[in-house]
Amino acid sequence: MQVAIQGVKGAFHEVAARNYFGNDIDILPMLHFSDLAESVKNGDCDYGIMAVENTISGTIHANLNLIREHKLVVCGEEYLRIRQNLVAKKGTKIEDLNEVRSHYMAINQSRKFFKQHPNIQLIESTDTALSMREIKENNLSDIGAIGSLLAADYYDLEVLAESIETNRKNYTRFLILRNKEVWKKKGRNKASMALILDNHQGSLAEILSIISSHDIDLSKIESLPLLGEPWHYQFYLDVLFDDKTKYQSMINEITTKLDRVDILGEYTSGNQSYSKIHHHDN
Fold first, then answer.
1. What is the pTM of this model?
2. Residue range 112-123, pLDDT digits in tens
3. Domain locations in the chain?
């Protein structure tokens, strides 16, 4: 089984993929999220895994748009506790470092740690694991990187400090994606959808009332303006349901009151208490 990830080998996307699918998978690295979406759409891989939300940084709206625009299907989710680690070439000490490179999010999540080391310059890069790979390939002895322990192992680097993130309650939600043409629904108790409301007063309140009246749990809602249509919005919703009949009835009712509804996927929810649960849908 081949799974497309964003980033190079050892990126947190790979850690999440292996948590979800197990280790018996082949990783297809993609540097950009748009490339990841294309690879899933074109059938270049069996699945894709894409970060869409972080408890510190919030929702990655552009990725939700990619899923909708490429007509990909969400068939599962994985919640990953993000542990940032400072690594360098073996034999290097923290006091030897002049700079540390990583993705801007990893840097932002670790700034408190680096206040203890004001001599180290923090440099933003494209990817956490890519920064580690460059240290290995270029034999850099005065440069460190921030990222996963998996990447440190891949690139034979020394871990100088573990779990340097400021906030320990740092989780990322990843969606498992597949091409719509080859995906088949199985177990499901959660759905992600995109709604475009008709532009009249109270339309959102009406939709939310309908969802509630069918005993559906609205677990997330985000709004985004529609380009070129001032004061017209698109909403991304996640809902949880126990009764599939009530869920389908809710969908049927809100569809008549919307300009458009796209069901991004119906799937088994990940464990939102963040302890490990195995939840394979397919």
1. 0.89
2. 999 999 999 999
3. 2-81+170-179, 85-161, 190-267
